[in-house]
Design a protein that fits this description.
The protein is built from 10 helices and no strands. Helix 2 (30-59) packs parallel to helix 4 (92-100) and helix 4 (92-100) packs across helix 6 (111-129). With 217 residues, it is mainly α. The chain has helices at residues 3-10, 30-59, 74-85, 92-100, 103-106, 111-129, 137-147, 153-172, 180-195, 202-214. Bound molecules: manganese (II) ion (MN).
Length: 217
């Protein structure tokens, strides 16, 4: 097989005539960009979200949810699925951030790693969604109420979907060691945090209202 025909198989849209502009494999003629530009974009988007899912699965691999049985990764994947299936959110940065939203808070993963692997935009959203675990729990909870209203739109979407997933979980099953009072307090605190993010996404906010109203606080 000649070198030229190999090139032609790898780049079928490139002309076979080397004397024409853009015939070399290292150059992409404008026509090639135009035909495949969108596909490249979608492929890159899918790859970002899948890479985030793979990364989160690896980092959360030893963790379980509060029932000590369910794998932790069910939660971030479920949060991302709430965004696509209920909130109509398909922005890849938001979805990748949703899948990664607990890796800094709950594993040894650093924000520097998120920046290096996923870029500035995902880094910024994950940062906004991560509590500072060096602070006492009561202070962290208070800070969520104070800060959630100042978050970016993407961080608010992730935060609302996270709360929706957690409240539905609590509604379904009381975690080990929790009594009714503690569950009710979690609902009340969540209602305050959510209240700071009104006007972000009506589907998420309606679903959150439903689950909170069912609780009869
Ligand atoms: Mn979470």
């Amino acid at each position: 097989m000649t070198e030229k025909s190999q090139n032609n198989e790898v780049y079928p849209k490139l002309t076979e005539n080397d004397s024409e502009k853009g015939a070399g494999v290292d150059e992409k003629p404008p026509a090639y960009e135009k035909t495949h530009g969108k596909l490249f974009g979608e492929v890159a988007d899918w790859n970002l979200v899948m890479k985030a899912a793979d990364f989160a699965a690896r980092r959360h691999r030893h963790q379980k949810r509060k029932d000590n049985v369910t794998p932790y990764i069910n939660h971030p994947l479920g949060v991302a699925y709430i965004l696509t299936s209920e909130a109509n959110v398909f922005d890849p940065v938001t979805l990748a951030s949703a899948v990664l939203h607990d890796v800094v808070e709950d594993t040894k993963t650093t924000l520097e790693e998120i920046l290096a692997e996923f870029g500035q935009e995902v880094h910024d959203v994950v940062k906004e969604c991560s509590d500072d675990k060096t602070l006492p729990k009561a202070e962290r909870k208070q800070l969520q109420i104070q800060n959630s209203g100042k978050h970016s739109h993407r961080a608010k979407l992730v935060h609302l979907a996270d709360k929706l997933y957690n409240l539905r979980d609590l509604e379904r099953k009381t975690p080990i060691g929790w009594d009714k009072k503690r569950v009710n307090e979690y609902f009340q605190w969540s209602r305050l945090v959510i209240g700071e993010m009104k006007g972000t996404n009506s589907a998420l906010e309606c679903a959150l209202d439903d689950v909170i109203n069912r609780r009869n606080l």
